[in-house]
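Quick one: structure for this chain?
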Amino acid sequence: MGQEIERKFLVQPGWRPTGAGERIAQGYLCSVPERTVRVRLRAGRGYLTVKGRNQGIARAEYEYEIPADDAEAMLALCEPVIIDKTRYIVKVEESVYEVDVFAGANDGLVVAEIELPSVEAPFVRPQWLGPEVSGDPRYYNSALAHHPYREW
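Got it. Here's what it folds into:
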């Protein structure tokens, strides 16, 4: 079984990652608490991802690459709003963060995520990290598709 163990943080106001990021469009075919089914188009490649219910910071996750044309067609079938963000990879010592700078309906939101090998795994916490929001469902991408950040 695939598993994702992830911690999520807001980023301190005014801090932004540097370098090249990758634009991501993602939508949800299903977004209920028990499961989400996500379609993503990233760097010209398509992905279909199924995630289970969160158990703290862990949950089941299965991701498959699909043809980019199929991903584009599936995005048209998704629930509104399509998530528009640019992802940056930021390395801090041995820790690797994915920093998402949101656009469109979620403009102004910047979130950093770190995937861990276990729930107890240590990680480096840089000064630019803000409060942890791992357990706050408002910051799940699937929730942002229904209740965009700019509407809060």
